[in-house]
Design brief:
By secondary structure, this protein is an alpha+beta fold. The protein has three helices and eight strands. 18% of the residues lie in helices and 31% in strands.
């Protein structure tokens, strides 16, 4: 009998402790600031695309572009953004697009993560695009690097590619096709 009373008393003390502890909180979880200093840029996609249809649905246009070599880097907080001038070689879907546009990408030449792939002069790219802001005329690739395929052949970057020319993913960490042609991009 005495053993049962001790066990019951222990349970009562535990329940009372929990009840008193809970009274001091609002029931939400609070995180404290981490003392760890991170180097580089943290990034996550707002959407992880699993199909070209989904990527296209969130894009205003799909185009073949060629960087001109003109770019500048701007900082927002500690995050670098590269704004590159690209020539629109061919609009594959959607639009209209200007002949030349400013493409904003997260990162700069010192950023080494694949998610921060920067377009390089002398190559063509199939890009899925959305306006960055209606008041500054800049564009971004839909889903960051998810919306970029690079030409796998060297050709004149200012000439429209053949409909069957192969373009390869610049990152391979998602479920989108590893290669794409202008014809496939037009149909997406």
């Amino acid at each position: 009998m005495r053993r049962g009373m001790i066990a019951t008393g222990a349970v009562a003390v535990a329940v009372a402790s929990l009840a008193l502890t809970a009274c001091g909180t609002d029931g939400t979880r609070h995180q404290t600031a981490s003392p760890t200093v991170r180097r580089g840029v943290g990034f996550s996609y707002a959407t992880a695309y699993t199909s070209l249809h989904g990527l296209r649905a969130d894009s205003k246009a799909v185009a073949v572009v060629s960087p001109t070599g003109q770019s500048n880097v701007t900082q927002v907080g500690n995050v670098p953004f590269t704004i590159s001038t690209v020539k629109v070689v061919e609009v594959l879907s959607g639009g209209p697009l200007p002949n030349v546009l400013s493409l904003r990408q997260t990162g700069d030449a010192r950023t080494s993560a694949p998610e921060f792939y920067l377009l390089q002069q002398g190559r063509q790219y199939i890009v899925y695009l959305v306006p960055f802001s209606s008041d500054n005329g800049q564009w971004v690739t839909t889903g960051a690097a998810q919306g970029i395929w690079a030409s796998s052949t060297s050709s004149n970057p200012d000439q429209a590619p053949s409909p069957s020319q192969q373009f390869d993913r610049v990152i391979q960490n998602d479920q989108l096709p590893s290669s794409l042609t202008p014809q496939e991009a037009s149909a997406s």
